[in-house]
Amino acid sequence: xxxxxxxxxxxxxxxICCEFLETMHRAGISVAxxxxxxxxxxxxxxxxPVIPADDIPVELRGVPFVVPWVAPGWRRExxxxxxxAGLRPVQxxxxxxxxxxxxxxxGSGVYVNAGAVIGAQSRLGASVFINRNAxxxxxxxxxxxxxxxxxxxxxxxxxxGRGGFVGAGATIAPGISIGANAVIASGASIHRDIxxxxxxxxxxxxxxxxxxxxxxxxxV
Length: 220
Description:
By secondary structure, the chain is mainly beta. It folds into two domains: about 5-90; about 95-215, Hexapeptide repeat proteins (UDP N-Acetylglucosamine Acyltransferase, domain 1, 3 Solenoid). The protein is built from two helices and 23 strands.
């Protein structure tokens, strides 16, 4: 796939931004500027010119942006902030080491980290985040703002709802549907459908909390 020459990082104060910088370095993409929306979680090394979110220059509106935040709700907030400011999201930022199928449908603002593998005939909604070494089986469907953590495995025909979050190393059996804003804890093994707005954990899994807004208490 082709990438733009430069990107804006909206929400560069997030510590996961360092992973985006590594992906951009491997893909030969420069940082046009970094838009900060809150206090820094890290030393923000190598992020180029730093610009407050309320002072974005007009000349940057032609540069596509990506949002380096893991939590779906916070990613949505910063994406909407950028769009209100007249910016446009990149179609997809994928690490050169990721394996993408020929038949892949994506919304805008998708990020795929290093070593991830996505199966054939998959569909990724807008602002989906797939972290390093995650594996998605054939006919995976991830709705907008869904997040898959490092090393998680989604077997074939899994559906992850809007704002759904699958933690590191979790395993989702074939054909399972996970509801909107549901959270699957790290290491969980899921073999039945999961309703929206719940926290599922363990192996074998159980529903440990209901009525949650989403990951980190922020829904989409």
